[in-house]
Amino acid sequence: MNIEDLMTEEKILLYADIHTKEEMIEQLSNLLTGGMDSETKSRLMKEVWKREKDGFTAIGNSVALAHAVSDFISEVSIVCIRSEHEIDWAPQQHVNKNRMVRLVFLFVIPEIMVDDEDREELEVLKQVVLKAGRTEIVQGLLKAVDKEEFRNIISG
Questions:
Q1: 40-55 pLDDT tens trace
Q2: 120: helix, coil or strand?
Q3: For residue 56, what is the DSSP state?
């Protein structure tokens, strides 16, 4: 399994007109849940917000790595949205130079897989995290003109 297996073109949204963290988390949830019912989307959003309240997920270079552990999602999932606008990702009381983001990845891990470090899917997520921390890769992702180019950069 590789990044391209988990991050299909359907799981990427470029040129998004998103201005707030709330809008971003809603759109990430929409993208990940796709054709699932609204209850599933609502539950996922609650899981993401729960994690966001536990800690700051922006990592610098205009990137945030939102994530959640779910008891109702059956497979490891990753989606990504690139906003046309900088989004303030930090809580108001949080003073941090890395608070503004444009590129947000959402990882969702089924609860039953959390302790299974040997899962291929979790290794793929680790690769994405490492690449999201590299300035030259992030700059390429922020400039990618289409989803194919985006996938080539993140999986290269």
A1: 889 999 999 998 888 8
A2: helix
A3: -
Asked if 119 and 113 touch (Cβ cutoff 8 Å), the reply is yes
66 contacts 28 by C-beta, under 8 angstroms? yes
End-to-end CA distance of the chain: 14
Which pLDDT band holds residue 56 (cuts at 50, 70, 90)?
confident
Other Cβ atoms closer than 10 A to 80:
24
Contact 113, 130 (CB under 8 A): no
Give yes or no for a contact between 62 and 103, defined as CB atoms under 8 angstroms apart.
Answer: yes
**Per residue in 76-98, pLDDT tens?**
899 999 999 999 998 665 566 67
How would you write 112-125 as a 3-class SS string?
HHCCCCCCHHHHHH
